[in-house]
Design a protein that fits this description.
Elements: E1 7-13, H1 20-28, E2 33-36, E3 68-70, E4 86-87, E5 91-92, E6 100-101, H2 131-135, H3 145-159, H4 185-196, E7 202-203, H5 241-247, E8 251-254, E9 258-267, E10 270-279, E11 285-295, H6 298-308, E12 325-332, E13 347-348, E14 365-370, H7 377-384, H8 389-399, E15 403-410, E16 419-427, E17 433-438, H9 443-462, E18 467-473, E19 477-478, E20 503-504, E21 507-512, H10 528-548
Parallel strand pairs: 1-2, 1-11, 2-8, 3-17, 6-19, 11-21
Antiparallel strand pairs: 4-5, 4-18, 7-13, 9-10, 10-11, 12-15, 12-18, 14-15, 16-17, 20-21
The structure holds flavin-adenine dinucleotide and iron/sulfur cluster (SF4).
Residues 13-18, 36-39, 66, 105-106, 108-109, 112-114, 116-120, 226, 258-259, 296-299, 301, 305, 481-482, 514-515, 526-529, 531 line the site of flavin-adenine dinucleotide (FAD).
Length: 549
């Protein structure tokens, strides 16, 4: 179905954490807003598989996927061979000498990729905003932690974030809206191992309900967040910001529509976004205009749309792409821990989160106990047991419930070999060239993976785990969940794409409000809360400017 009007005060492209908070604020302040979303609306009570007997064979029920291709593969530095991904059942997961691209993980749907996320809701470390001035790498953000603090608090309230009294290096004016979740039994065992190494395990701050909130019951600790939460307990954007957008009565949301081009015109020497071309769910082309256009398609699709629209600034759109630096080790514990019970990540070791070049790499990181992939019997059968017949069945029975994992996520510094372009040879059904992702790890990321691997093994060992059965790392596999950086925010229009209020340099009525604007990635913090805070701040600054006339 096409949009009801020919013209809106603002058009927002994408309904994830970058788009929905912005649309909400503008509509709540009386503006006519149109949200265009490539994917469908999922009904949490019907769409997800967690209440089905074959849930484990199903992933998130993607009905629409935005395609992309990949660029050159990075040759593996054999100095770091120990970091190869493997498991007991299969052996090496990548037997080649090059890093293998698996997929860019994202969801097209009302609510964006948060439909599939694990609910972690982190503020960035204060120092992570100043990588250049404090550690002489990458760039500084043009804004700091204190600029985002009120918007972090606003987003936490909308989501219903459950968290502890204090998280190191993130000063807060008010407590988290909800009390923290208790640690699962498996995490308590890992906590004992942490204590032996003088490490503190802090309850994680998560957009997962620990009490009744937003008319939803508290979480039932089924650990299935990535399948999509069937109880509306997880603070995905569809059940948090989108209802607020709808309550305003000023916003039209179109699902299953795809924007292929933004039109820019030049008037009196000033460039201005005029409107955009989109295809409706029947494949029919439309044009709609807006006083403001906000792009929030995620750090891969946003640069693709801008490049396909021939909108760029000093050839910087798509540069500085950053992905996820990730490592995880799964081990068997002699005691049955049932680590599949709980929320996906209930606690964190923040000790190494503040950047520190003395470790041999500058960026910060965080580590955590988790069930890893060890959720149902199928994981055990496909990943942690080998052989055939009766002995295989006995092996799976013997070890089911005994696996526990420790993982880490860390800073990814931008580098020249890592970027998004478009692939002119491969086009989607609308004739638009698809995004092409190329990503190489730098020496800092490799050293950091080595560090996280050593620490994870130390912690598992000290917790009493006896046998490592799987290691997965981004050393040899690209499977990015957190992506950023392709429309860098900065004051200097020669070196950045958007200004600190997220307006495109030189096109003041065009904004980018998603993860693309991050100048650096932070030390492994989950990004959605920061994206939401940035989006709320951009809306607030725009509204203040409009009020001034
Ligand atoms: C498995 C997994 C677990 C994760 N866990 C966490 C977590 O625990 N905590 C956390 O903070 N983050 C987590 N993340 C990351 C988080 O989901 C993303 O960082 C976040 O959703 C990015 O927000 P965004 O607005 O930039 O993009 P997205 O959420 O991807 O939203 C972009 C939207 O734009 C739409 N779109 C794209 N192109 C077009 C177009 N041309 N026309 C119309 N619409 C378009 C897309 O369909 C999509 O809905 C996880 C991600 C994955 C995959
Ligand atoms: S663990 Fe909690 S939030 Fe996650 S899917 Fe289960 S009920 Fe929902």
């Amino acid at each position: 179905m096409p949009a009801k009007k020919q013209k809106y005060d603002c058009i927002v492209i994408g309904s994830g954490p970058g788009g929905a908070p912005f649309a909400w604020q503008l509509a709540a302040n009386g503006m006519d807003v149109l949200v265009l979303e490539a994917g469908p609306k999922y009904d949490p009570y019907k769409a997800y598989a967690l209440d089905k007997t074959d849930w484990e064979t199903q992933g998130f029920p993607e009905t629409k996927r935005i395609r992309n291709t990949f660029g050159k593969s990075q040759p593996l530095d054999l100095k770091y061979e120990k970091l190869r991904s493997w498991n007991k059942a299969v052996g090496k997961l990548n037997r080649t000498k090059e890093r293998r691209y698996l997929k860019y993980q994202h969801v097209a749907g009302i609510g964006g990729t948060t439909l599939h996320f694990q609910g972690e809701a982190h503020r960035l470390n204060e120092n992570a905003f100043r990588m250049k001035s404090l550690y002489d790498v990458a760039v500084d953000w043009p804004i700091g932690y204190s600029d985002l603090e009120p918007y972090y608090a606003q987003a936490e309230k909308v989501l219903g974030v459950a968290g502890p009294e204090k998280v190191p290096d993130r000063p807060r004016k008010n407590p988290y809206p909800l009390k923290p979740h208790k640690l699962s039994y498996a995490s308590q065992i890992i906590e004992k191992g942490c204590k032996k190494h003088g490490l503190e395990l802090t309850p994680n701050s998560v957009a997962i309900l620990s009490e009744v909130y937003r008319d939803a019951p508290p979480c039932n600790y089924c650990n299935g967040c990535v399948w999509g939460c069937p109880r509306k307990d997880k603070g995905s954007v569809d059940v948090t910001f989108i209802p607020l957008v709808q309550e305003t009565g000023k916003c039209e949301i179109l699902e299953n529509v795809f924007v292929t081009r933004i039109e820019v015109e030049k008037k009196n020497g000033v460039r201005k976004a005029k409107g955009l071309v989109y295809y409706d769910n029947k494949g029919k082309e439309h044009f709609v205009s807006g006083d403001y256009i906000t792009v929030a398609c995620g750090a891969v699709e946003t640069p693709r749309l801008l490049i396909n629209s021939e909108i760029d600034n000093n050839d910087l759109v798509g540069k500085n792409f950053m992905e996820t630096t990730f490592y995880e080790a799964v081990a068997f514990h002699p005691e049955r821990l049932d680590s599949y019970r709980g929320i996906p990540m209930d606690s964190i070791i923040w000790k190494w989160n503040t950047p520190d070049p003395k470790r041999g790499f500058p960026g910060g990181l965080r580590m955590f106990p988790t069930a890893g992939s060890a959720l149902g019997p199928l994981s055990y059968a496909l990943r942690y047991s080998s052989g055939w017949g009766e002995s295989f069945v006995k092996d799976v029975e013997k070890w089911f419930g005994h696996a526990v994992a420790v993982g880490g996520i860390a800073e990814f510094l931008p580098n020249d070999d890592t970027f998004i372009t478009v692939n002119p040879d491969i086009k989607d059904q609308y004739g638009a060239p698809v995004a092409n992702i190329q990503s190489f790890l730098g020496e800092s990321e490799l050293k950091c993976l080595e560090f996280m691997s050593a620490k994870a093994k130390e912690i598992l060992d000290a917790s009493g785990a006896t046998e490592i059965v799987e290691e997965v790392s981004t050393y040899d596999l690209f499977s990015a969940t957190h992506v950023y950086g392709t429309c860098r925010m900065g004051k200097d229009r020669e070196k950045s794409v958007v200004d600190p209020s997220l307006r495109f340099h030189g096109i003041p009525n065009l904004l980018v409000t998603d993860a693309s604007v991050f100048p650096t990635s932070g030390g492994g913090e989950a990004p959605s809360l920061t994206i939401e805070a940035l989006s709320l701040r951009a809306a607030d600054l725009l509204l203040k400017e409009l009020k001034k006339g």
